[in-house]
Specification:
By secondary structure, the protein is mainly beta. The protein folds into two domains: 23-191, no CATH class; 215-290, Immunoglobulin-like (Sandwich). The chain is built from two helices and 20 strands. The chain has helices at 2-13, 207-211; strands at residues 29-37, 41-55, 58-66, 76-84, 87-92, 99-103, 111-114, 123-135, 138-145, 152-154, 158-159, 175-184, 187-191, 215-217, 224-228, 238-244, 249-255, 260-264, 271-279, 282-290. It has an eight-stranded antiparallel beta sheet, with no helix packed on it. Pfam families: Por_Secre_tail (PF18962). Residues 1-21 form the signal peptide. InterPro entries: Secre_tail.
């Protein structure tokens, strides 16, 4: 099963550091989340807790985030979060209504209605499989969800899309998030296998990096993909990666003195993918779809 193969990659990406706490609401947690608005401008959002608050008689942790420290060092309140018996509840800053963010108790075949910060209402997720990730003798439960994007939740960490982005792709298609790294008490416990580092950004690089786009065709594609790279000052040299919606790097290579690439997709399943290219001038990305229907 594909999710089992993916778990092997996940296991290899989790560092062998001591696990101090499995609680999603532990005050020492920090999440670094890559954000690509329109799939070209890449920045890193940082989420952490900053104090407590009381809402309608319930105690919550106040979650704050920093959009990108290369632009601003300010922190912004985004949600109040509490946890009870494997259920994680949140109140977003735009509302006083509590919603379910996670149910870490889900078993195969069971469903839950959870809320992403981008969605206007709850979306249904269904557990198709579970597994256990062991870090220095401590197990964390992993839940695989039945949707097009093979979402997975890890106990105490949340969705691999980011702490507030569970089921994100049920309601948006032009914004890409994925969890780069997870820390507890400043110790790195998890790094996504497809991440370049725990902090990715092209904010503030040369303007040509931001305005020039990759050209991918046909899109949707079936068996082959043509790529035309934008002309940079440094030429066309760089490194490319094809990343699936689970954050797994499935194709990679280098680019030389030609702007054109030809990629074979025959071994890849249908779905949404991200083509990322890194050059000396920065990085750009664009999504494409494989569909053989």
């Amino acid at each position: 099963m594909q999710v089992k193969r993916l778990l092997i990659t996940v296991l290899a990406a989790i560092l062998t550091l001591p696990v101090l706490c499995q609680q999603f609401t532990d005050q020492h947690n920090q999440w670094n989340v890559a954000n690509s608005n329109g799939w070209t401008v890449i920045s890193t959002e940082i989420y952490r807790y900053w104090g407590d608050t009381l809402i309608q008689g319930n105690n919550y942790r106040k979650m704050v985030y920093q959009p990108d420290s290369s632009v601003s060092t300010d922190w912004y309140y985004i949600a109040a979060v509490r946890e009870e018996n494997g259920y994680v509840y949140g109140v977003f800053n735009r509302s006083e209504e509590e919603c379910l963010l996670y149910n870490f108790n889900l078993l195969p075949g069971e469903s839950a209605y959870i809320q992403s910060i981008w969605c206007t209402g709850p979306t249904q997720v269904t557990c198709i499989d579970t597994a256990s990730v062991e870090i220095n003798g401590t197990s964390r439960r992993v839940i695989f969800l039945n949707d097009t994007f093979e979402e997975r939740w890890t106990e105490g960490i949340g969705s691999h899309f980011g702490p507030l982005y569970a089921s994100l792709y049920m309601c948006v298609t032009d914004i890409y998030h994925h969890l780069l790294c997870y820390y507890n008490d400043n110790q790195l416990l998890y790094m996504d296998p497809g991440a370049i580092s725990c902090y990715e950004t092209n904010v503030g690089v040369q303007q040509e990096t931001l305005i020039q786009r990759l050209k991918l065709w046909p899109n949707p594609a079936a068996l082959h993909l043509q790529v035309e790279l934008p002309r940079m000052v440094s030429g066309y040299g760089g490194v490319y990666k094809v990343v699936n919606a689970a954050g797994q790097v499935i194709l990679s290579g280098t680019t030389g003195n030609t702007p054109f690439l030809h990629l074979s997709l025959t071994s890849l399943p249908d779905g949404i993918y991200l083509f990322r290219w890194e050059s000396q001038n920065g990085g750009i990305a664009s999504k494409f779809i494989i569909s053989r229907l």
